[in-house]
Amino acid sequence: MMGVNHAAIGQASAMMWALSAGATLDQALVAGGISALAAILPDIDHPSGQIRQRMGIASVLLFWLKHRGITHTLLAFVAVGVGSSQLLPLYHAIPVIIGYGSHLVADAMTRSGIPFWYPLYKKPVHLLPSFMRLRTNGLVEHLIGAAALFVILRNIVQ
Ligand SMILES: [Zn+2]
What we know:
Oligomer: single chain
Shape: globular
Strand content: under 5%
Number of strands: 0
Bound molecules: zinc ion
């Protein structure tokens, strides 16, 4: 999935969580922003991804990361979850976990899937049967991104 759609899904998911937990709109927007950042983090392994491009020359340090490799696993998800819950207050750690997790769920709906159980089980894991899997940068992916955007805007303007 594209970074912009991951960010929108992460933002919408954390906003819905925060609002359902009794947060104000401002607090929900902050939670959403944190989640949107966490939602693009796993694609730090993408050679032409936005994160790498912003890193400039420093991105050569990440040459060893294979796209949809270690950052798309349960291992990375647990590491990010434990790390953020140690470093951040809970109301900021939860959006990190929501955002990162939403990325893995979204990518697991695509045709390539994700190596979720790596290194215990190396084959890609899929959430959907093969005929329903999303094509990266395809119409359905963008419709999901648009739906997430709608949820965000709907919560802001109500
Ligand atoms: Zn990804």
